[in-house]
Design goal:
Strand content: 35-45%
Radius of gyration: 24 Å
CATH topology of the largest domain: Jelly Rolls
CATH architecture of the largest domain: Sandwich
Length: 163
Amino acid sequence: MKISPLRIGLVLAAIGIVAIIIIFDSNQKTVSSIMLEREGTSNVNLDLRDNGIGYYKITIPSFDGQMIFVQIEDNVGNVISDKKIQTKLSVNYFDFPSGGKYTLKITNVSEKSTSLQVEFGNTDVSALRIPAIILGIGIILILFSVYKRLKNYSTAQPDENIS
């Protein structure tokens, strides 16, 4: 039985995708639901390892034009990132230079109370390199085999009726 590059590519792409999903799902993160009163503030803390790229995802389920202000602070109190959010869903990334306790400070600057769903974590980019390479090789094999099959494929052109 001959194994074609297309099948190998499909298997490698599937392995890469599954590995990336597993790594994303098992990343270091905290998820919480918060109710912010008018001009209220809430903090979410997370101990991040080493250095890397962190993220926060904020969802406002009953969005009605509310605006919130978000800051990321390190363990010394230095502001690493800040952003005004005026959408139902916001995902933002930030670089953290070293491990330690990081705080996501959320302030409601609108006139209404707001309920939020917050996810704060580490993307763990270094763990994604090998699955991304496997996925890339799989996609290249798929493209190569499709190109090889279509290169020799010719379509018959109908004769034009001249009237």
